[in-house]
Structure of Conjugal transfer protein TraA:
Amino acid sequence: MKEPVFIAFSTQKGGAGKTTLTVLMASYLYYVRGLKVLVVDCDYPQYSIKEMRDRDVEILRINSAFKKNFMEQRERIQRDPYPILITKPEDALDRARAIIESGKEDYDIVLFDLPGTINNPGVAKTVSLMDYIFCPVAADKLILESSLAFAMKVRDEIMTVSGCSVKDMYMLWNLVDAREKTDLYERYEEVFEEQMLQTLKTRLPDAKKYRREGSKDAARAVFRSTLLPPDKNLLKGSRLVELADEILGIIKL
């Protein structure tokens, strides 16, 4: 049995996009690239990904266009939707391991959606047992300061401890405003580099499509869903494919 790669898009500031990135990457890698994915929603107590799956299932029940797309995709890829494990952060690793070791599925990637606070011992332990951490950051003062503080805390207080599994951590530019000057991000990256923090090359734009979910009554293309992959037309210009390629290169999958 192969060992799956444990990944978390993690930061402590709400609004940075960690849950959206987790869902988009899970759906793209599973439904489009064919990788076997397990999602662990341990963002206690709100469990945002579970709520998204529940909404998707309800839309599937009442929206015929959404149901048609779902059934056509299921027939094409011959797969049920990827599983979502709901658990408290302190139990996340044990419960994920139990699923993996059951041997029912040979997972490639396990994606964790963690709570924002790193001061909780259960969260800190779970973070320490990730293989890779991608920390979303935006050119917003509060998000920037919070994400930087989170990354430095992980670097200084988690990655230095014996038994830590983290191989690499990267900052990830999200919600990039096309009107911002490029050199603004380059100056911030110089600060990251001074703090010995790596930055992914791919920058994700601030685009409304990232929030495009299924609708109970409208027959529209969907970008963010736990039951469907991002729509092919909406993928254009999203940089999601480039992000997936860069991450898969880093984790060697």
